[in-house]
Amino acid sequence: MYVLVMGAGTVGLPLISSIVSTGHEVLAIEPNRQNADTVRSKLGSIVIDGDATSSRTLQKTGAARADIFIATTGNDADNLAACLLAKNMFKVNRTISIVNLQENAELFEQAGVDIVVSTTDLVIANLSGSLPAHPLVRLMPIKGRGLEIVGIKVPEGAVVVGKPLRDLQVPYGVHMNLIISSAGRTEDPKDDTIIEAEDEIIAVSPVESTEALWETLTELR
Q: What is the per-residue pLDDT for 128?
């Protein structure tokens, strides 16, 4: 998969690093020379100096073969313009954008941006993830489907620890997508996958079933 990321700042840089770690091809587009140099020093030559709202810049990146375009800058107008350029001129299959002002989210959705992520939601998710308890972290709503992507960490002493996935009484419609162990290993969940303490489970859940899923995964013995 080839991913283009507009912006290598506070949001963009860790995102780029994460994509690199998964083995996908990624290229950052960053107009700020200092930010671009930071990417080069940390991750190598996977950044191009330029403005992603320019068709000439996107052409240089090979945008026509990109699978995903992600806009992460602090400027909503630039994020929207770049997403629409990538989608309409270069036919990028999926566009994702940060929206810095919550009131702009509907505009992004109406314009055709596939996934819109509010910076407010990101802050809440990061705050929740830093708490000592095992909170329900709502990572992203899935527009128009009544679904959301959630992250739930299994605590020590949970009823589900040591059980195979097939024995869990999860709510109808929930799909487990990924399990991340406490050591950072990732696994595609299967029926015989054993749940371990401190596993973080990433799932797609009907909104109305999410609380019940959290209760199932965090109930203590």
A: 46
Amino acid (1-letter code) at residue 193: T
**Beta strands 2-6; 68-71: pairing state:** parallel
| Per CATH, domain 2-121 is 3.40.50.300 | no
Looking at 3.10.129.10, 1.10.10.10, 3.40.50.720, 3.30.70.1450, the CATH number of the domain 131-218 comes to 3.30.70.1450
pTM, two decimals, is 0.59
The structure tokens listed for 193 are: 């996958």
Please tell me the distance from the alpha carbon of residue 30 to that of residue 204, in angstroms, as a whole number. Answer: 32
Nearest alpha carbon to residue 86 among 101, 74, 97:
97
At what angle are helices 12-21 and 33-43 packed, to 10 degrees? 30
- Condensed to tens digits (0 to 9), the pLDDT of residues 85-110 reads 999 999 999 999 999 888 899 999 99
